[in-house]
Amino acid sequence: MASGAVLSPELARVGSLLLHQQCWCWGCDIRRPEGNLLLQYGFVRLRPPRPDSGSSRYTLRIGDRTKLHLWGFGAAWQEGEDATFVARYEFQPVMLRKECLAGDIWVRDQLFFHSPEPRRQWKSLAHAACFSRFNAGYERWVLRTAGLAYRREVLAQWDHFSVSAEEFAAAWECLADLLDGLRDALQQAAARKPV
Is the pTM of this model over 0.85? Predict the structure, then answer.
């Protein structure tokens, strides 16, 4: 991944913990005996050419220009020709190069990243905040659709630190607010710098 981390280690750790838990939940939602919740939500599944060649990709179209791509190793929030990737175990939003958006991606090594530059960092933070808000909305939808007992059962099987089913959406909203605040602060600091 491109160097130039924009998030503090503490904020990146929070994002990583939430995304790791979210990936676990998505996996359970996919294998749910009553039906795949991601497909029910509207995602389209694209499997790799061979089962051993990587991770399936789930893509959701959100409006005319926005898509969300999910893999077992992370996620990409795409708006038009701009997209930001966040890794499951390393929550540092980074802009993807355009050629990644057209191809079939099955493993993380197929991703190519832009070098860090302030405007790209601001855009990647905006995308990460949108992704976090999406996750909050998705978790609320899961509670309405599958029930609180279902999400509690999923998290009871998780042997890592976890945010409770009741607090999961709020945790994502809080992260989104922090990401937006960081983006705003970086933009204001850049505007005050002498040229």
Answer: yes
